[in-house]
Amino acid sequence: MQEVVDLIPRKVELMNKDNIVLIDVRTQMEFNQTGIIENSHMLTFYDEYGNYNLEEWLEEFRKLVTSKDQTFILICAHANRTRMIGNYLVQQEGYKNCAHLYGGIAQWLQEGRKTVAI
Q1: Is the pLDDT of residue 85 over 70?
Q2: Number of Cβ atoms within 10 Å of the Cβ of 70
Q3: How many angstroms separate the CA atoms of 62 and 94, rounded?
Q4: CA end-to-end span of the chain, whole Å?
Q5: Which residues have C-beta within 8 Å of that of residue 96, sequence separation ≥ 6?
Q6: Residue 73 clears pLDDT 90, i.e. is over it
């Protein structure tokens, strides 16, 4: 069975140079607080109350990831949301190349990596 791959910030930074699809699932408030990794697509999954609309999110997600074989990287604050979302995409939706930023944007920033202000 496929599983979500943990990628350390350095690896994500290298893959970003190859035009990989980066999807940041955090909230607008979080984007405003920390900025986003350059080239990331902002696609909030859970709202500030923990609610989500799976079908609406998947519809937008499928515009970015157009094949079940396409590689993409999910990003959130600490890698908890992305682990759950990634597991769902792999196990229920059949995506084969799902990764997430290990430690989330918090780890990214802790390592002194840059973000782009929103």
Answers
A1: yes
A2: 14
A3: 13
A4: 37
A5: 2, 68, 69, 90
A6: yes
